[in-house]
């Protein structure tokens, strides 16, 4: 296999580990000895790359999760009500929600320490509010102004956008909040004259997949995350 190993500097500093991302491209043959120099190596492989999946499995990579990447067209819709821009004063509440909403992500045990996943997504949503990774975080609120859910968005260089995080509070489940947040994301894109909206989710997150498809999303690709651990 031709491959490139890229150290994950931000993740390494945040999690206190020595990890890298393996990209199956380039003109350099994969160096097995270089793999062994990292505590953890991540790789994302398209579902149809069966030969690569077999080869990586033989090298000790293990399946962590499947992922579906959806794309939605940005269409004229009525601006949803009860949507606010998240501000610094909302960070504490947002961190608490995010810490519990994404417990079963690929940053879970046994590859990461207990609590690392929640801590990672809590930091992600804070960065979105501050505009230091995703560019903005939008809140869905009820008539009294209490938070019901949130969505973070990032504008890409190709004239499209990507949803980073989307979560609905447990008490607000079943009230159409997910749909309202998707409409808010669409409106955010339309105001910036962006053409498409991307969003990825775990293959096992059937509720999220149903939401995106119901909103007009199309599954663009599916892939698998694999890890190789070297204690």
TrEMBL record:
Keywords, ordered alphabetically: Acyltransferase, Transferase
Binding-site residues for acetyl-CoA, renumbered to this chain: 205
GO terms assigned for molecular function: N-acetyltransferase activity
Enzyme Commission number(s): 2.3.1.210
Classification via InterPro entries: AcTrfase_WecD (IPR012752), Acyl_CoA_acyltransferase (IPR016181), Bact_Acetyltransf (IPR050832), GNAT_dom (IPR000182)
Involved pathway(s): Bacterial outer membrane biogenesis; enterobacterial common antigen biosynthesis
Group of enzyme by EC: transferase
Domain N-acetyltransferase: 89-231
Biological process annotations from GO: enterobacterial common antigen biosynthetic process
Function text: Catalyzes the acetylation of dTDP-fucosamine (dTDP-4-amino-4,6-dideoxy-D-galactose) to dTDP-Fuc4NAc, which is utilized in the biosynthesis of the enterobacterial common antigen (ECA).
Subunit structure: Homodimer.
Family: Belongs to the WecD family.
Listed name of the protein: dTDP-fucosamine acetyltransferase
Source organism: Erwinia sorbitola
Lineage: Bacteria, Pseudomonadati, Pseudomonadota, Gammaproteobacteria, Enterobacterales
GN (gene name): rffC
């Amino acid at each position: 296999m031709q491959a490139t190993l890229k150290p994950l500097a931000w993740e390494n500093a945040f999690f206190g580990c020595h990890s890298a991302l393996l990209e199956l491209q380039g003109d350099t043959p994969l160096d097995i000895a270089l793999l062994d120099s990292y505590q953890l190596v991540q790789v994302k492989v398209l579902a149809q790359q069966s030969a690569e999946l077999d080869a990586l499995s033989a090298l000790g990579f293990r399946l962590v999760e499947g992922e579906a990447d959806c794309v939605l067209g940005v269409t004229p819709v009525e601006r949803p009500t009860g949507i606010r821009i998240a501000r610094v004063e909302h960070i504490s509440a947002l961190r608490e929600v995010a810490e519990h909403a994404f417990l079963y992500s690929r940053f879970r045990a046994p590859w990461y320490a207990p609590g690392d996943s929640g801590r990672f997504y809590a930091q992600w949503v804070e960065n979105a509010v501050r505009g230091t990774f995703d560019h903005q975080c939008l809140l869905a609120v009820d008539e009294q102004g209490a938070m019901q859910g949130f969505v973070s968005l990032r504008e890409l260089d190709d004239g499209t956008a990507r949803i980073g995080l989307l979560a609905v509070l447990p008490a607000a489940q079943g009230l159409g909040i997910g749909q309202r947040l998707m409409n808010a994301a669409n409106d955010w894109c339309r105001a910036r004259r962006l053409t498409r909206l991307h969003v990825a989710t775990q293959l096992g997150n059937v509720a999220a997949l149903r939401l995106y498809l119901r909103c007009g999303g199309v599954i663009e690709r599916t892939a698998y995350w694999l890890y190789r651990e070297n204690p």
